[in-house]
Amino acid sequence: MNNFSFYKDGKGLYCLFFIWLCFSFSSVYAKNTVRHSTIFTQQHQIQGTITDGLNPLPGVTIAVKSRLNSSTISDYSGQYTLFSAPNDTLIVSFIGFKTALIPIKSRTNIDIQLLYDITTLQEVKINAGYYSVKESERTGSIARITSKDIETQPVTNILATMQGRMAGVSITQATGVPGGGFDIKIRGQNSIRTDANAPLYIIDGVPYSSEPVGSFYTGTTFPTLTSPLNSINPDAIESIEILKDADATSIYGSRGANGVVLITTKKGKAGKTKFTVTASTGTGTVTKFIKLMNTQEYLDMRRQAFINDGISEYGISDYDINGTWDQNRYTDWQKKLLGGTAQITDLHASVSGGSENTQFLVSGSYHTESTVFAGDFLYRKGGSQINLNHQSEDNKFKLTFSAGFNRQDNNQPSFDFTYDARALPPNAPALYNSDGELNWENGTWDNPLRNLNTEFESATNDLTANTTLTYELAKGLSVKSNLGYTILHNDETRIVPSTIYNPANNVSSAGSAIFLNNTDRSSWIIEPQINWKKDLGKSNLDILLGATFQSQESQSLVQSGTGFASNNLIYNLAAAKNVRVLTNDQTQYKYQAIFGRINYNLKERYIINLTARRDGSSRFGPGNQFAYFGAAGLAWIFSNENLLKDSSWLSFGKIRSSYGTTGNDQIGDYQFLDTYTTSSVLYGGNTGLSPSRLYNADFGWETNKKFEAALELGFFQDRIFVTGAWYQNRSSNQLVGLSLPGTTGFTSIQSNLDAVVENSGLEFTLRTSNFVKGNFTWITNLNLTFANNKLVRFPGLESSAYSQQYRIGKPLNIALLYDLKGVNPQTGLYEFEDLNGDGSITFPEDRQAMADLNPKYFGGIQNQLTYKGITLDFLFQFIKQKNRTYPMGPAGMMSNQQQRIAGSWREQNDIAPYQIYTTGYNDDAMTASYLLDESTGSVTDASFVRLKNISLSYNLPLSLKETQCKIMLQGQNLLTFTKYKDGDPEFLSYGFLPPLKVITAGIQLIF
Fold it and tell me: What is the pLDDT at residue 122?
């Protein structure tokens, strides 16, 4: 097993470089300024506290009207102090609140209560990647959540924080096992290849690779490979922006075709040093089980199956029914194997503060989570975050440094018990003997807890660091350099010891095995930029030019070892008799680009935003390595027109539209080259090489053309704010493997296919301030998405390898199925449409019925109610979709079934929804059962409405001025309303643990 070395390959040098930057650049390099102060007569000190009526407000700006350099900022306790004359007026301003003018009138103590102003939310600047823009002036489609939304959710993965909260963003949880992954699609599936639809992730300006770091040899607990996104700590995040349309994503060129996820970490704020400590504990349980047969129903099914098959005597191995097992015994195996309670603990602490010129934040977090499976398994995650902001006295030089380190340790069974929990007969034997040892019931069954001995372990270290240097050369003209570095190391092991077998079989440690996966990934990025902003009187011009230089190196080593002298040596690969190298890859990805942006704003009414990028990628051959991408965005803020400017009912109105192109190079490295792979077959005792890929000089970029039109309206001071957007994205020049004749020696060649995939849809958002008066506020947020996906063009589809996977004019995510007619009342067998009329059900001729497995619509509705110190926040997520039923196999065999199968056909002329039982000897019934799993009968309504999140908090009314204490109660996935009968309706692949229902209680102390 490789040992992680921080200084390996000069990796420590980069971090030393960052430290040098932090200490070598300071305000001494900036222009010195001389402070001038004017002495006003009769000045005296003013002090007080700024609140929202209940809580103190830190960071509020208090200035003296018509005075220069006479302002201050309230500290964390909301207190402020400044000097003024008795007849002066204070101007008090803070984002999200109405600006207040307060005459001093010779007072020395002035406490001020600010009122909420929903309209000013349009002035909030949002992160658009290389630049920031006011919410009211953006021309692109950007969805956003902040730390306030994240803090209410007891989750560990950043994708979980966004579920149900953003229009156009579909997120599905893959498993409830700790450390499992999520699937995200931003405005649908653009690429035919299912592994090429991931968005680009940017953390504080640094690209973060989401490519899996796991291996199928080790991560058998999960339906998807281990994702590095689990390393990102949600507690450290200030905001997440999702860039969706061409205007927002085109500046990222080839990396923005599937959308961009911008993650901004928390920063320090000027003021007194502030300490925050948050601790919580909770539990997690499975959301929903399948209703399975009890013992009586199960045995009735088994007996009827023998009768149906004409078998009068039970076989020697029919232990469940021949009297070997207790026929009065009942075990709910779902509760036994999946019904445990996961224990969850979280601890987060931070310290922040600083002066007006230098601010800092240091935070740390620790999370532990056990599993609902039997056994002592634990997922641990800890990390720290450092942020430093500095600016010179003259505000010309600015430095921002951020670094985050996270470590995960995951120990889980390498076997998901969900399948056994659903399939085991309800009268199967007890798990343990009276002496506490595993019960093998005289070799009549394989005890499911044997798989507790086959363990999965992983350890992941992840570091992301960023430094941004900015210097103002002249008024409006600044240069900037963004430097970033990431390094990730992942070790995984899976052991299969001989102890998983019945001791009576005398399987020794010579049959034990271990699988190991070691992955290393590092990358660096340098992005020099120059920005010019010019106020032209009635208009503003903003020009940005920049370049990107990026390199990423990855190494992967997967090995296996079998045959050990003792199971005590199973983790020592050198002790294995047979050692194999299954995979040994080393890849390098290089990327270069130049980009630019021109933004012109006329009279704060007419806005044009132009972006362009020239990309170069090492993943394509000579002549195709470079490509151009660009977009144009337009906006008209018609509410600023003279006719509507003073409207009493329309507070904001904007029409925006965009069109442009982005690209996609998510095809892997070296795909255009002739490549060779080591052969597992020895020749003369030597390992040989075999060709594995053909050279393709024409291998080029995928291109995604995006169009959007949107309307934004605010009514009654934005107390009602609604947006509607229509989009159409067309992805062409698809990167796929084209089939080749077997005579070539290759099954396919990587190439560009003239296929076009279209995603279109409607997105709606609604924000209403239902009640804002006194101490009570009630705010509602709704998002709703209608999405459509279809394959527009695919030349030669009928003769390609994809002929039985896709259809022109239909979505990519379809299932081609046999068409179930029902159960024949005479034979008791499932019947299917014989489309070609040949008298038999054959593939592919008769498997042509289509089922669309894409969501028809999805969204969420959030309500936040606040009364004095009490805040209630809850979110309902909803989705309209179809999905697969859980396949239990032919009913009547030695495996449990859904309770509804008890209504199966028994005799001629029965009208029943389910076919005849069989023990496995009725070939026609076995065939029909197989066809059912590939028919329209296996697809059902899997729509659901879920109470995704609920949070109740209370700020304790402490008498201490600079101390706050909040108690919290939070829940995730608490209620699910669905017609889906086979467990939880949210899954990517059936047979894995569903999402957990989580309840936590916590306390937060700020001082």
Answer: 63
Neighbours of 512 (CB within 10 A): 25
Beta strand pairing call for 132-134 and 939-941: unpaired
Alpha-carbon distance of 878 to 782, in angstroms, equals 11
Q: Which of 223, 224, 222, 226 is nearest to 214 (CA)?
A: 226
The string of pLDDT tens digits covering residues 984-1003 is 999 999 889 999 999 999 99
3-class state of residue 343 by DSSP: strand
Residue pair 225/218 in contact (Cβ under 8 Å)? The answer is: no
Q: Is 774 left (phi over 0), alpha (psi -120 to 50) or beta?
A: left
- In which residue are the tokens 């605010």 written? 714
3-state DSSP assignment of residue 75: coil
Residues 823 and 830 sit within 8 Å (Cβ to Cβ): yes
User: Which residue in this structure is represented by tokens 């607990």?
Assistant: 221
Return the percent helix, strand and coil in the chain, to nearest 5.
15, 50, 40
DSSP 183-212: EEEESS--SSSTTS-PPEEEETTEEE--S-
Name the CATH architecture for the domain at 44-117.
Answer: Sandwich (2.60)
Q: Residues 528-568: pLDDT tens digits?
A: 999 999 999 999 999 999 999 999 999 999 999 999 999 99
Q: Say what the pTM is.
A: 0.88
Cα 247 off chain centre by: 23
121-266: what CATH class? mainly beta
Rg of the Cα trace of the chain?
A: 32
Q: Are 1002 and 281 in contact (CB under 8 A)?
A: yes
CA trace torsion 113, 118, 119, 122 (10° rounding): 120
* Amino acid at position 666, single letter: Q
Residue 462: beta bridge partners? 406, 488
Chain-centroid distance, C-alpha 798 = 36
DSSP state of 995: P
Closest CA to 163 of 177, 147, 182, 191: 182
Residue 608 CB neighbours (<10 A): 14
In percent, the amount of the chain with pLDDT more than 70 equals 94
How crowded is residue 738: how many other Cβ atoms within 10 Å of its Cβ? Answer: 16
> What is the DSSP pairing of strand 882-884 with strand 939-941?
antiparallel
What residues does each domain of the chain span?
A: 44-117, 121-266, 297-329+816-851+887-941
Nearest to 204 by CA among 152, 262, 260, 258: 262
Q: Give, rounded to a whole angstrom, the gap between the first and last alpha carbons of the chain.
A: 45
CA 852/CA 654 separation, integer angstroms: 35
Residue 31 has pLDDT above 50, yes or no: no
Decide if 945 contacts 876 (C-beta within 8 A).
yes
Residue pair 830/820 in contact (Cβ under 8 Å)? The answer is: yes
Question: Could you give the CA distance from residue 741 to residue 586 in angstroms, rounded to a whole number?
Answer: 30
| Residue 443 three-state SS | helix
Question: How far is 613 from 628, CA to CA, in rounded Å?
Answer: 6
Find residue 237's DSSP bridge partners. 265
**Burial (CB count <10 Å: 0-12, 13-18, 19+), residue 520:** buried
pLDDT score at 401: 97
For 869-932, what is the HEC assignment? CEEEEEEEEEEECEEECCCCCCCCCCCCCEHHHHHECCCCCCCCCECCCCCCCCHHHHHHHHHH
What's the CA gap between 182 and 163, in Å, rounded? 10
Question: Alpha helices of 442-541 — where are they, by DSSP H?
Answer: none
Residues 6+ positions from 23 with CB-CB distance below 8 Å: none
* Residue that has been written with the tokens 């008024």 in this structure: 475
Token pair listed for 587? 């890849």
Residues 6+ apart with CB under 8 A from 740: 746, 747, 748, 749
Q: 561 forms bridges with which residues in the sheet?
A: 514, 579
- In the 8-state DSSP scheme, what is residue 141? -
Q: What distance in Å separates the CA atoms of residue 813 and residue 855, rounded to the nearest whole number?
A: 10
Question: Distance (Å, rounded) from C-alpha 954 to C-alpha 39?
Answer: 46
